[in-house]
Amino acid sequence: MTIQGLHLSIIDQTIIRSYIKVLLIYPFPDPYKFGDASTALGSGLRSTLQQYPYLAGSVGPADPVTGKVTAQYPDRIPNVLDSGVFQTVCEPASYSDFDYANLKEQGMPPEVLTSDRFCPISLKDHPGTGCSAADSVQELRNGPVPALAVQVTLISGGLVLSVYAHHCLMDGAGLGVFLERYATNVQTCRPDFQDKSSTPHDHSARRRDIDALVSASKRSLSSSHCPEFQLSPISSKEAIPPAANLRAHPHVMTSRILTFSHGRLSNLRDAMVNALNKRVSVFTVLTALLWVNVARSREPALIEAGVQDQETALGIAVNLKRALGEGFEDYVGNVSFAAWTSIPISKLTAMKSQLKMSPDSSTAKQTDCSMLEAVRTISATLSELDRDWMLKRISYLSAVPDPRRLGYAFSTVNSPHFFVNDWQALGADTHWDIPGTTSSQPEFIRRPYSEGEGGAFGIILPRRRSNGAQSNYEVLVRLAEEDMARFENEMERWVERVLA
C-alpha cells in the first residue's frame, strides 16, 4: 500500500479548518436488525470511498512556515471498520436517555443530540483536533486528522447516522453530493461488493482547475475588492482584532428550532414582491425575517453597549458551483464563500411600521419598513454573486501568504452581527433503504449540538420536497440566552412551533 497526495485548491486551503457535521436520524424498532443495518452502511461506505478514496485518508498537519495543509490517502481502500472511518455503537445502557418516540414527539429538539454523545469515536479527544468532540476550529499543529468519520449509533427505537467530513475537502453542497452517492451505494451494495468498473482517476484535477482560474498576474490582496476579509499581522487567528464586544459580562449561548409554514412565508414573500415591485425569493424573505428580529431582540444589549447607532452585518453562506460551468456538477470540493452585507442597526430596530401585516395576508399594500429595507439589502447582495464576484475572491485568497492569518472583518461572537446558512438541499429527500428502518428517508436531519461552538447563526435545515408538496421550513437559531426569549416573542406570530 502506497500513500498518495491530494492537491488542495486555493479555496480548500483558506476555508475554515473544522468538520462539517450532520446527524441523519431514522425510526428503527427492532434492535436485532442493527447488525444488518451496520453491514449495509459499512459496505455502502466502502463503495463510496472507492469513488472518493481521499476521504479514507487524512488532512494536515499545517506547514509551520506556510500554514498550508496537505491531504493524503492510501492507494487501496482499507477495511472501513479496521481503519476507523466507520464505527458502530450498540450500547443500549449508555444511550438509555434517548428514546426515539419521545424525541420525535418533541420534534427532535436541538440541544438533546449533543456532539459529545454522537461524535464518532475516532474523533473523540483526537490530538490533531485540539478538542474533545471535533466541534471547534483546528490549528492542525499536532499531526493529521481523519478526512472523514462515520458512525451508526443505536438508540431506543431509532438509529442515528453521524457523518463528519473535513471542510478542507468539501463544503456543504459537496457533502450533499457525497450523501447521495453513499445512499445509492447502501441500496445497491452487498457485503462482498467491489467496484470492478472503477478506473484510475485524477482526484486533484478539478481542484487544480479552480486554481487555474486566477493567473499569477491577477493575484491581488486589494481590500476594495473583498472588504469582508482581513489579515492579521502574524500567523495566528488570535491576532485578528476582535469586534467590539456586545456584552462585557460572560453570557450563555442557546439554540432553538423554529418551524415556519410554507404558506405564511409565501404570503410574506408575495407582500414583499407587491411592495418592492421585484422578484423576491422565500429564502431572502426568511433570511430578512431572521435578521430583523435578531436585531430587535438584541436592542437592550445594543443600547447598553452604546452601539445602537452602528451597523449590523449579515453573512450568508453561498455556493457558487454553478459559476464554474460544465464538469463541476458532481464536484465535492469547496466552492463556498460568505457574502456579507450590512445596514444601520436603527433601520432594523426602529419599528417604523406603517401597517403591521398579518402573517396570513398577502394583500397588504404597506408593511414593516424594516423588513422592506432588509429584503432590499439582501436581494442586492445576492444579485452580485456571479462569476466575476467569485474570481475576485479566489484572486484575493490566492495572494494570502499564510492561511492562518486570514479572517473575516465581521465576527458573530458577542457582536451585533449574524450569519445564515442554507441546508435545505442536504439529503432530506434521499432514499437510503437501510435494513431495519421503517422510513426509507431520514425522518430528521440535525446538526450535533455543542455548547461552546461558534457565535450567533441561523441554519435553514433540510426539508422535503417530494411528491410536489411543499413542507414546512425549520430553522436552527443560536443566540445569547438573554436575547432568545425576546427573539421568540418577536417571532411568535410567524412560527408554528419552537423547539428548545
From TrEMBL:
Keyword Transferase recorded: yes
Lineage per the UniProt record: Eukaryota, Fungi, Dikarya, Ascomycota, Pezizomycotina
Residue ranges that the Swiss-Prot or TrEMBL entry lists as coiled coil: 470-497
Pfam name, any one: Transferase
MF term (GO), any: acyltransferase activity, transferring groups other than amino-acyl groups
Keywords: Coiled coil, Transferase
Domain of life: Eukaryota
GO biological process: secondary metabolite biosynthetic process
Protein name: Transferase family-domain-containing protein
